[in-house]
């Protein structure tokens, strides 16, 4: 990609991000445990998501991605303490009470593809019953048309019609994932949170599911794709946000992140280098426990560029939080 094309794509990305559908500022989540211990699940997350945009939130398991999504929907356990703001069409999702979230946000303004779909399906109801009930609750479809609408929703998520009358315990992990995706798409919510939506799917279904989620964004809605599947992210994302140890350490246009330019943060570059189609070189060491984070940059113990500067936490500036980025920050 030449520099002229890259600049043009950067301009399009900036224009999309400038008119935010969702604006998150300083989102922080702490879990208080017995004995006075604290889990720093998310710290100071800042990002915007525009209508028509897909932002992929990536990182190793346990870095805080799913906690961030749960915070936006008020689905955290009682021992969670949340601060910051998350504005969606004038509503602060972090400050909204349970009644507001249940009646006007979940499903209607924010759709969710959950990470553990089986836990979100009622065991005694068939997939068809789930879909028809969701159609009834979220759309104005007349009773006579709900069966067809449910079948169309299933088809959008590549859920086979032959399994519509199955109960959740009769589904494989991949089928449960597709059922959850179908349910999330029914309300055509302005914002869709897809938490590991391709888990348990083979590559063909990964691509079909990713493409359907992309169409959701192309129709003028926002998509926050939470995933460790970098191939799926590369397929549909406009921008990429990388999380490590509860912090967003880089936000970049997808074409730069996955292209020849590559990311600026050493951790983000390590994620790409670990892919089989690239260097297939894993990042050395293990992520820190969120209940026992090191002082300074949490990635420093694993980073080949670490110096004494890394004893302090780097601020996210010019899209990267690193004292030694690949390219110097302006």
Automatic annotation (TrEMBL):
Keyword Transport recorded: yes
Region: Disordered, residue numbers: 141-162
Entry's localization field: Cell membrane
GO biological process: peptide transport
Membrane topology, as annotated: Peripheral membrane protein
MF terms in GO: ATP binding; ATP hydrolysis activity
InterPro entries xrefs: AAA+_ATPase, ABC_Ni/Peptide_Import, ABC_transporter-like_ATP-bd, Oligopep_ABC_C, P-loop_NTPase
Domain of life: Bacteria
Keywords: ATP-binding, Cell membrane, Membrane, Nucleotide-binding, Transport
Segments forming domain ABC transporter: 24-270
Cellular component per GO, a single term: plasma membrane
Family to which this protein belongs: Belongs to the ABC transporter superfamily.
Entry protein name: ABC transporter ATP-binding protein
Protein species of origin: Streptomyces filamentosus (Streptomyces roseosporus)
Biological classification of the source: Bacteria, Bacillati, Actinomycetota, Actinomycetes, Kitasatosporales
């Amino acid at each position: 990609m030449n520099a002229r094309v890259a600049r043009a794509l950067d301009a399009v990305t900036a224009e999309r991000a400038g008119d935010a559908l969702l604006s998150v500022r300083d989102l922080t989540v702490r879990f208080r445990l017995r004995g006075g211990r604290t889990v720093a699940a998310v710290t100071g997350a800042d990002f915007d998501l525009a209508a028509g945009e897909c932002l992929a939130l990536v990182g190793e398991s346990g870095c805080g991605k799913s906690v961030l999504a749960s915070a936006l929907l008020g689905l955290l356990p009682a021992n969670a303490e949340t601060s910051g703001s998350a504005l969606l069409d004038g509503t602060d999702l972090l400050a909204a009470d349970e009644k507001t979230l249940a009646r006007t946000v979940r499903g209607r303004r924010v759709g969710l593809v959950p990470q553990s779909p089986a836990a979100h399906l009622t065991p005694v109801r068939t997939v068809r019953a789930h879909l028809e009930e969701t159609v009834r609750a979220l759309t104005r479809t007349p009773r006579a048309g709900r069966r067809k609408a449910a079948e169309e929703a299933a088809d959008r998520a590549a859920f086979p019609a032959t399994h519509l009358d199955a109960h959740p315990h009769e589904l494989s992990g991949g089928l449960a994932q597709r059922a959850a995706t179908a349910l999330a798409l029914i309300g055509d919510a302005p914002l869709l949170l897809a938490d590991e939506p391709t888990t348990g799917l083979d590559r063909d279904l990964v691509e079909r599911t990713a493409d359907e989620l992309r169409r959701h964004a192309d129709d003028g809605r926002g998509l926050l794709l939470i995933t460790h599947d970098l191939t799926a992210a590369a397929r549909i994302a406009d921008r990429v946000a990388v999380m490590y140890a509860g912090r967003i350490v880089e936000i970049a246009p997808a074409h730069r992140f996955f292209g020849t330019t590559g990311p600026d943060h050493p951790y983000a570059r390590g994620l790409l280098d670990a892919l089989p189609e690239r260097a297939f070189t894993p990042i050395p060491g293990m992520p820190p426990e969120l209940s026992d984070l090191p002082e300074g940059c949490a990635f420093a113990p694993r980073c080949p560029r670490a110096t004494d500067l890394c004893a302090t936490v780097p601020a996210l500036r010019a899209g990267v939080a690193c004292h030694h980025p690949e390219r110097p920050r302006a």
